[in-house]
Each structure stands twice: as C-alpha cells, then as structure tokens.
Specification:
The complex is a heterotrimer of chains A (160), B (424) and C (781). Chain A is elongated. Chain A contains seven helices and five strands; from the N terminus they run ααααβααββββα. In chain A, strand 4 and strand 5 form a beta hairpin. With 160 residues, chain A is an alpha+beta fold. Helices cover 44% and strands 13% of the residues of chain B. In chain B, helix 6 crosses helix 9, helix 9 crosses helix 10 and helix 15 packs parallel to helix 17. The longest helix of chain B is centred in the C-terminal third of the chain and has 26 residues. Chain B is globular. Chain B starts with 17 loop residues before the first helix and ends in an 8-residue tail after the last helix. Chain C is an alpha/beta fold and 781 residues long. In chain C, 57% of the residues are buried. Chain C is globular and about 90 Å long. In chain C, the strands form nine sheets. A seven-stranded mixed beta sheet of chain C has the order 14-13-24-23-22-15-16. The chains are: A alpha+beta (160), B alpha/beta (424), C alpha/beta (781). Chains A and B meet through helix 2, helix 4 and helix 5 of A and strand 3, strand 5, strand 11 and helix 14 of B. Bound molecules: flavin mononucleotide, iron/sulfur cluster and FE2/S2 (inorganic) cluster. Flavin mononucleotide binds next to strand 4 and helix 17 of chain B.
Chain lengths: 160, 424, 781
Amino acid sequence: MSLSAASLAKIDREVSKYPTEQKQSAVMSALRIAQQELGWLSNETIQFVADYLEMPRIAAYEVATFYNMYRMHPVGKHCLTVCTNLPCRLTWENDAGAYLKQKLGIGFGETTSDGKYTLLEGECMGVCGDAPVLLVNNHKMCSFMTPEKIDQMLADLDKP
Amino acid sequence: MSEKVILNVLDHPNPGTLANYEQVGGYQALKKILAEKIQAETIIAEVKASGLRGRGGAGFPTGLKWSFIPRHFEGTKYVVCNTDEGEPGTFKDRDIIRYNPHSVIEGMLICGYTLGAKVGYNYIHGEIWAEYEMFERALEEARAAGLLGKNILGSGFDFELHAHHGFGAYICGEETALLESIEGKKGQPRFKPPFPASFGLYGRPTVINNTETFANIPYIIRNGGQKFLELGKPNNGGTKIFSVSGQVNKPGNYEVPLGLPFRDLLAMAGGMREGRTLKACIPGGSSVPVLPADVMMDVTMDYDALAKAGSMLGAGSVILIDDRICMVRALERLSYFYFEESCGQCTPCREGTGWLYRIVHRIVQGNGKLEDLDLLMDVSTNIGGRTICALGDAAATPVQSFIKHFRSEFEHFIEHKRSLDGCH
Amino acid sequence: MGVISMLNIEIDGQQIEVAEGSTVIDAADALGIYIPRFCYHRKLSVAANCRMCLVDIEKAPKPLPACATPVTDGMKVATKSEKAIRAQQGVMEFLLINHPLDCPICDQGGECQLQDLAVGYGGSSSRYTEEKRVVINKNLGSLIATDMTRCIHCTRCVRFGQEIGGLMELGQAARGEHSEIMPFISQTVDSELSGNMIDLCPVGALTSKPFRYTARSWELVRRPSISPHDGLGANLSAHLVKERVMRVLPRDNDALNECWLADRDRFSYEALNSDQRLTMPMIKQDGQWRETDWQTALEYVVHGLKDIKADYGADAIGALATPHSTLEELYLLQKLMRAHGCNNVDHRLRQSDFSADAAQAGTPWLGQTVEQLAQSDAVLVVGSTLRKDHPLMAHRLRQAVKKGMKLNLINAVDDDLLCRVANKAIVAPSAIVNALAQVVKAAAQLKQVTLSEAFASITPDANAQAIANSLVAGKQVSVLLGNTAQHHPQAANLHSLALELVRIIGGNVGFLGEAANSVGAYIAGAWPQGAGMNAMQMLASPRQAYFLLNVEADLDSYDAQQALSAMMQAKMVVALSAFKHHAQDYADVMLPIAPFTETSGTFINTEGRVQSFNAVSKPRGETRPAWKVLRVLGNLLNLPGFDYNSTEQVRAELLPSGETTGKLDNALKQLNLGDLSVKANGIERIGEVPIYQADALVRRAPSLQKTRDAQAPQAWINGALLQQLGLNVGDAVQLKQGTGQAQLAVARDDRLPNNCVRVAGAHPTTMHLGGLFGAIVVERA
Ligand SMILES: Cc1cc2nc3c(=O)[nH]c(=O)nc-3n(C[C@H](O)[C@H](O)[C@H](O)COP(=O)(O)O)c2cc1C
Ligand code: SF4
Ligand code: FES
C-alpha cells in the first residue's frame, strides 16, 4: 500500500521539523495524516508509516495504540467524540452524550447502521469553559452543545 | 480594571495577529535584547526577580529552572513549550494560542537566546486542531517578519520553532512524557533525575515551560521583573489566567492579579448558575484537592494561600460545583479519568488506578461497603508518592480529598445505594 | 580522563564506598544487602517501573527506587524500615491483584521472582475483590511460549530487544491497565538472541517452548559446560533430569557471553535427544547396515586401515574432522594418523585457499581478547555474515558502536547489522580482495607509506577512501576476517592484505573463529603442517579411505559436490559421529561417539582461552567418547603412546602449561599479495552457511529448524540481474555448478551486488552444488 502524494507531502513536511536522524519524531503526525486519508489505521497502514519513517513497526504500533485519537478499527463517516469528564458533566442539564445516544440510537463505541456516525466518549479536551463540548472527526471542536446545536450540527454534517 | 499581561491583546483588533501583538509592545523585548546584546545572566536575573512561577501546575520558579541549563555546554539544546493542556478544568493555554500566540513565540525566542538553544518545539494538545493551525500560521507570520529562522533581525541569532501536535494522551502534559512524545514514542514519563535541564529532548539539555509561563516573559523583559512581581504579591508574582468552569454563569478565562480573593473571581464569572449554592471547588485542576465551599470562600487565589488552605493553585483551573452534584459520582468520573490516562509503566499507578475506579464504580452501582472507604484511602496512599511521575499522586488526591471532605455523602450512598436527594 | 570520585553511603547501618554514578541498588548489591526488584537488570537500561525496590532514604519525603536513585555522598538508606517495607508491600499487593495465583500449574513455578518475593512481601489474603485481568497469549514462534496474563510489565523483554538484541520485536502496546507486551500484529520473534528474553522474564509470561512443562525446576540437576558452536565459547549450564538434558541456560562470564546465550547455544540441546542419534556401532555388509559391538567394529576399522596402508600406502588415507570436535579428540586423531604414517589430516573443511599454510607463523586467532576487541574504536570487518555466524560477537560490536566505535564493512552481502555501519563496500565475492586492496592503498596514501608493485594498478574508490579515513582516525584498530573471508578462494590474499593494512595503520588482525574449537584444532595439530594434504587436496584427489570425525561430508565441506563424490568412490569410509547421517550412503563403518555433553574435553575459543569441561551426562546407548575410541584404535594398531586414562592426560601432553601463550600468531612469514585485480567471470555464487545448518547439533534441533532463520535456501538476486535474466520473484530456477544442480525459488534482495546469486550452502537442498563461491549458472527451471 501507499498513501496519496498529498499525504506523503504532508508527512515530509512534518519530518522536516526534526533533526535528520530523528525521523521517528514525525510518527504521530504521519499516523494522523494517514488516518485522515483512510479513515482508520489498519495494520498495513501502520506498517507503511513505520517503514516510511524507518522505525520499528512495533514502535509505530505502540504509538498508534497509546494515543486516544487514533482509530484502530473502521469507523463511521463522522466520528463524534463527546467529552464526559467532570467539567462537561457539570452541565448535566445539557448532557450532550445522552442526547446523541438517543438521537442516533447507538451507544458509545458504536456506529450507526448506515455507517454515518460513530459515537465515542472522550476525555478532557481542554475546552471546559465551553461545556458541553464535542469533537467532530478529531479536527472540529464544537462548543456549548445544547440539543438545538447538536441538531444543527448533524444537519450540517448530513449535507452532501 | 487591573493590568493584563497576556490577554490585553483582546482590547485591540484582530487578536492573534502579529499586528495586534505589536500594539501591546510585541517583540520589543526581543528587539531590545538583540540590539543591546543583553547578557544571559541579566535576563535570568530579571526572570528570577519577577517571581514568575511555572504556570503548568507545579509552580516551580522559572528563573531558577533556566539557571540549571549548562550554559557553557557547546552542543544542541532545546526549548520546549507545553501546550498539552489536558488537565480537567484547564483551558487557558488554548486561549493564549488563539489570541496571543506571538507572546509564546517571543517568550520562547528569549529563552532560546538566553540558553543558547537554536531550536524549539511547542507541543499542542491533540484535541485543539484549530489552535494548532493558528499557531502554525503565527509561526509563518513570524518567519516572514524575520523573527524566526536564521540571523534574526540581522543580529546573528538563529532560532527555529516548530509545532508538534499531540493526539490524545493526558500524560503527555507531564514534561518528560511530552519529550518522549516529541521523539515519536509513547508518552511514558522518564524517571528523574536526570532532569530535562541536563537530559531532555533527544538527550540534550532542554528547558520546558508551560505556554502561559512563556507568554509572561516578554512583559518581564520589557517592564522589568520588579514590575511583574508587583502585579501580584511577594513570591506569587504577576497575573494569572484562571480557567473558570462548572456551574457558573460566565465560565471562561480571567486574567487577574495573583492574590485576588476567590469571591471576586466568582463574581467576575457571574456567580453560581441559577443562584445555586457553591458546594465545593477544585481550585487548580482535577489533580488538586477539592475544597468545601466554606473554606473556598475565604481564600485568595495564589500559590501560598491555596497551599495553606489544603489545596494547590495548580494550573489555575477553577472547577465550581453546586449543591445538586453528587460527589460520589463526581469522584467516579475523575477516578475513571486517571485510570483511563495512566500510561501503564509503574505498577502502583497501572494497577492502583483501575482498582480505585472499580471500587468507586461499585459503590455507584450500589454494591459498596463501608469498609471500601478505608480501602480507598489505603490504596490511594499506596499509589501516591510511589510512582515515576505525579499522575500517581494526581489519581490519589481526588479520592483522598473527596472522602476527607464529603465522607458522609459517601456513607449515605453506600447505605442507601443512591445519591443524596436532588443530587446528580 | 577525569578522576572518578568516590562516595560514601550507609545502607542499613553498613558503610561502603562506591564510584560516582553508582545507584543505591549497586551499592546494596556490593554490600550483599538484597533489595527486591523486577524491572532492574544490570545489563539493561534502568526503567524504574516496577517500583519493587522502593527504599527509605534519609531526607527524602517519599520512598525512592533504589535502582534509579544515584548515590550521593553521605547518603543514608534503610531498606527494611517501616516506610520501606510498607512501600514494598504496597507494590507487591498491586502486582498480585491481577496476577494469577496458580503457581503450581505455572511453568515458572519454583523459579519465579514474583513467587519468591510474594512469600516475603505479599499479604496473606487479597483485598482485591474485583475481576482479574486476562490477556490473550501471543505466538512468538517456536522458541518462546507466552502466558501473557502473568506479565508484570517490567519491560525487560522490550528493553532487551531494543538494547541488546538490536531489534525491537516486542513492544508494550496500548496504555495503562490495558497495556500488553506484544510483537507487531502476529509476527514472531526472530532475533538470533531471542531466548534471552525467557531468562529475563521474572515471571512465567515468557517461557521456553521446547522446555515447557517437561520438568519442574527443582527436579533439575545443573552441570556446567561450554557451547560447542561458534568460536566465542559461551559458558552454559545444562539442566538434566535423569541423564537427559532438558534445557540449557547461560552461565555468567563477563569476558565472553556475559549473561547471554545465542539461541543456538540455548536450544541445540534438543539434538542430543534426537531420534537420529547413532547409539550402536554399525557396519555395512553386502550393502546392508547392521548393528554390531564395539570390538567387531573397531577390528574392522583397524583391518581396513592396515589393508589400505598395505595396498596403497598410508598416504591413501584422508582424515577429516570438524572444528566442533574437542581438543583431545583432534589431537588424538592427528596423532593416530601420523603414527599410522598418514599426514593427511585437516579440520578446515570449508576453506578453499590453503596457499598461506606454509607462511603461517602460528595459530590464527582473534588477535586479542573479546573484551579488548570491544574496546576498539575503529573496526573493519571483512567477509562476514556477522550476526548469524557470531551472534554474541555481533552483539559486542553493536554495544561498542553505541559507545562510538566506527564499524566498517567489506562484504558480499549487506544484511542489517542492527547498528550504525560507518562505511561499507558491498561487492561481489570476486571483488572483495580488490576492495580490501583499495583500502590498503588509500591508507598508505594517507600515512604516506610506500606499497609494493602489486598495488600499482589499484585506485581507491570513495568507499575505500572513507573506510581508510575511518581506520586511520582510530586509536585502537581491529581488522577482522570473518567466515566468508576464511572460506574465500583467495583467503590468503585477504589475510595478507589485512596484515598490510595494520602494518600501515597499526592495530590488530583477527580471525573470527568459525567453530568452538577453530583455534584448538590448529593447536592440536589437526592440519597438515606442510607434510600432508589439506582438506581440499584430500577431496580433489580422492583417497582410497576416509576417516571422518564428526564430519557430514556433504554439509561441512566447501564443495559439497566434490566431497560427496570423493566419499562415494572411496574403498573405505569410517564415520565417527553422534548422529546417523548421509554417511549411510557412503560409509562402511559408523561409530557412535559422544556429543560434547557426554564427554569431557576442551575447546579453545577464538581468543585462545582454554576451556575444559566434563561430561554432563552418561553417553547414550553404546556411545563412547571419541577420545577413548581413538585411544583404543591406537592400541589395536599397536602404536606407541596411546595409554591415556583421561582427557586431562591427553591435554597435559599437548598443552603442558594449560595455556596457549606463544602459539597464537596471525602473522605470515611471507605475504601473498598475488593478483589484486577483480577476476569476475559471469554470475557468481555467494554461499554462506546458515546459522542453523552450521553444525551437526543445530541441524537436528527441531525448534531451531522451525525458526525464520532456518527457512530453506532461496536464490537471492538483485533487481538488475533479475531483469537481465527475465526472472520474477517466486520463479523456480535451476542452478548449476559443475555437474551438480539444485532447483530453488527466486527471491529479491536489491542490496546484493550485481551479477551475484546468494545461495546458502550446508543445506540438503543445495548439497549437490559446488563451491560456496565461484561461477554459477542460473536458468529458468
Ligand atoms: C500528569 C501530569 C500532567 C501535566 N499536564 C500539564 C499540562 O497539561 N500542561 C503543563 O504546562 N504542565 C503540565 N504538567 C506539568 C509539567 O510536568 C511541567 O511541570 C510543566 O510543564 C513545567 O512548566 P512550568 O514550570 O512553566 O509550569 C503535568 C504534570 C503531570 C504530572
Ligand atoms: S505514575 Fe502512572 S502515568 Fe506516571 S509514569 Fe507511572 S504509570 Fe505512567
Ligand atoms: S527494580 Fe527498581 S523500580 Fe523496578
């Protein structure tokens, strides 16, 4: 396998941030970029990244399984990670997780049958003042997620 | 209103841009240092005089930390910034990156100049991608203005700065785990000694500071350490950004002088939501001891006063809990957090955090026993102070302080298999 | 060099002075005060993750890990204070909450550090009432069995791979309580040093697959011995139940193997129990093998030897031995032959160039001790499949490279040495001589030394220049000649060039001893020494009779095809062997002799260290130690001086001082520089001997045979040649050398030099081919 030229160019840019003999430093970014292209990290992808950065495959696997935001299994088109940590929980009247579970009919760690959404439980995202928060596809932070805003967000994501 | 050191940029248009930063004196400190070729000793002395203490949680004096770097060491050294903010309740560094990234860049430049380092990295929390990109843009802007790269402003000083993106691991906020993570490994903390000052990134001498710590540096150089110190109170110099979250009307970041009475901070945050009563407050992020409202209402917000009151200033993350919250469930969630985030290398933390969580969880499930409270105290004692990094202590602290201050609520839960009436 | 300052420390009231940089655990160990530990290991980096070694240090508010805490002057430590004990008990409780408490069914039972310490530090009943963790087992291959629920996450095995094995094959995936030690997906652990992880694992998570559940540790009798494989002479301990070797573990010797063993040292014992053991003397009568008694068999041999001598002269006999035989066996073999009038004795079966024999000043050896070699700051390795030929020597060099040694390489293959190679020249076998000559020339230019005419046409290329620069910059330089260099058709040229090189730059020339007794065989006199035929001559001009000591002619020779045909045509072949083998086709008598575990004897390692050992078990069946067989043959032939009662007597006669001093010398009285140009003619073979085919024992160790390193040979070719030949990976090809051929699958390795096919020797699938090096024809099958 390989990644797209665009992804490889992004990885190369990350590699250039570190000393030449420290290519491994780019592994977190490289896995993120690969995941963004392919949706999740298969073993082949991890192997490709490890070989590309000339590091032991198991070391890349360690990284992929250590950090929470890597997806080690196929996920839905959109991954919604809801913070359930204490500060977000303190806005219990607006329980974004409960609302999403009910709305999508799935629990945490599950994917809707149409493959559109995967719902995940997240740890503190460092945005507690905006509680409740959730993160879409690891890249877009959504703040003050009342049921109305969640409905709006889902409607936006549904747009082709 | 009191003077602000970092969030003053919000009073000017387009916060986050170089132009905005220049309106509050941005990069003047760097220019002055480069033009006058100010000695490293002088800079360190100024930082020491400011009474600046690390804003990442431990409150270690910054000037002292910088003085540990072997200055005559010829090889590569590094400056690393910790924007891995993942401590529940903390969200100030995110705003610094959004509104004033250049203060961090300038602070790191000054640090690099002082220590003879030519490369720096800013490690940015995985979940805040937009801020990561903002920081990358700020770096581009600085590069374009000749403020980063080779021969900065024609001074002969070279410094390059890069952003490193985290990807979801609270432990990477711990400074040596963070260094491991930049090296492309799992974020498992290193045993200290050796400290990063002698064996840091890639085994090189490294200074690592929190985002807010670096953001204070330009002000200190521009205005002198004494001026900064006087913003706060002795041994607690400067302003501090408090992240206020929980059941208040206006959660958010408030930059105030250290030593501000807690009451005033609560008032700034609009008071408790729906006029409810404050029940408890975790004043420095989830890892510091919780304090009951009555203790809280009498403290001032600074390192010394909070320590005296039996807690810590930590990262200045003030979590406010009102009287409808069940402290048992609150602890359950925090215990789950430390269990989930333990890196897994030391025995007490790897095995103990799971044990703690399972006991609290069992209590919440209605299967608790009164002896469990002593067991919780004992197990947490066996974790605290016996691990490589302070996550072990961080996991033990909530358990111990929640039980200490709210024991009757726990006993009630165990006996009745449910929260206090009206609590969630 | 700075002066090392000494620090005073007091532990449990006892004082000791230790060097700066020592840790509390070092000091306690020196005092004989035991601090419990799991993750700490003196040969690995300090992880300080198990927290078992927490001790109470004066002025420290918290208990600190002894393994990671550096000693400061005047430090006071209490290892058994209430604070220390409470901390240790707390850690032990944590370790046990998720650990199965079924020691009686655990393979590690009886030698488990967790079990031992739990008795001292664990509470009696568990306060943990939650569910225990279960971890799925991993298949790590044929050598290491797993029981991962027992893992205590000390990461010794992971650190071993990263730091000693040189290859990170295991890691700790996931995090927190979910972390698991595992390989990448379902890969096996393939390091040639992997078995050490079994020793390192303090609990029963990693155990020996071949040994598993075959014996309990307390039933085992432990007896010391020496590894019979490569020239290092690793020290080992054989563990037996009722005269059967059940497993082999290392014996610490920091001068040689430290606390490690290569997998072949550790697992080759399986062959001792193989059903291929020859346990009765056998004679072929009318084409049929019949078991017989010793008397009959020996008389048969004696008559045969006498008849051949009478009919054709003693010169018609050829005696061949492997350098895996003991010093005493080799000495008696040559003594017997010479007394019988025959000087055709040799042990160098895989050598192809003997032209330096006459000039040899002494016994070729490493040129220094292994520890001295590891101190070199610049090394040039010429012709070696280093990791596979000398697994622990390769480890030594890797450690040295980490400390700054510059490792340079001239070789025909570019296998990963798992460390930084400073400079290398990867060339066809026929070009190795020229490549080394270029380095000599470049060094001479740098040092402004004049060279002989032979170098006139040599022009150093960039690689040679870089190697020369690296060596000239070294203060302590070693030039090592590996197995490929020793088997090479121009071995004498390589030897001479190596000597020229160190004449110019200073330093040492060393031979990496191929076998356990490569040095001993020379010292024993088991080579012609000018008076007789060498191994190559004995096979090239076939003899009427062959006397084989431990030799499998088709697998142990440079040119298998030639060796086989020589055997086939002989009037009589006497095979002394511990195993049945292909000799069944060509021998007349097979005499069961003891493998190294069933006889006393001596190996002299590559650094000249004399290591004698006793039998660890009784000989199996009718097996006899070969030295006794040779002694009786001497008696039956009425030869004088064969009255030994023990191997000590034999050794005392050969080596009265017990030492090798004065006998070891790599110098040549006359250099053989000859023609230094490249003489390539078409496609040539690179024939290495695979690690698990190198000797009779490893060939018969089933677990080793299941490893990746034991995979059947393929025809490895680089992309350019593949294209030229119109071949694809996986195609079957017919390889031809002389009249012999072999059919193999094609594999691709772009790091191989042009016009070369890498085809391993010493293997049943390639034993009809010719020399390990030289021309070879490749055709689509
Ligand atoms: C578990 C753990 C998490 C931490 N998280 C952070 C963090 O998110 N940000 C931070 O600046 N420091 C964090 N720290 C503290 C750092 O280890 C370190 O003390 C700090 O970055 C030093 O900078 P300062 O001196 O400027 O505060 C954490 C420490 C621990 C033990
Ligand atoms: S205390 Fe926990 S998080 Fe910190 S190093 Fe130990 S196992 Fe890792
Ligand atoms: S032996 Fe010291 S922490 Fe494991």
